[in-house]
Amino acid sequence: MKPAGVVRKVDQLGRIVLPKSLRKRYQMNEGDPVEILVQGDHIILERYRPRCVFCGSMEQVSDFREKHVCAACLTELKPQTSQDNM
């Protein structure tokens, strides 16, 4: 992890302002969802990327019946053809 050399105080509501230079560098815009992860004694912020509800993959995820499903799992969800049932 590379230190950014920026120190910010947490306000009374627990908020931290990310410097504009960091938001610009990492293409973070107002309203973008951010995921907060904890790894050991580190708090990590990442741009939120939906994960497949079945396998946890973040690759080729789309919405299927209001759930996030990857392409591989979506293929498995397709109904069997009538020949497969014989």
From TrEMBL:
GO molecular function (one): DNA binding
InterPro entries: B_subtilis_Trans_State_Reg, SpoVT-AbrB_dom, SpoVT-AbrB_sf
All residue ranges annotated as the SpoVT-AbrB domain in the record: 5-50
Keywords from the named record: DNA-binding
NCBIfam families given in the database record: lp_hng_hel_AbrB (TIGR01439)
PANTHER family: PTHR36432, TRANSITION STATE REGULATOR ABH-RELATED (PTHR36432:SF4)
Protein name, as recorded: AbrB family transcriptional regulator
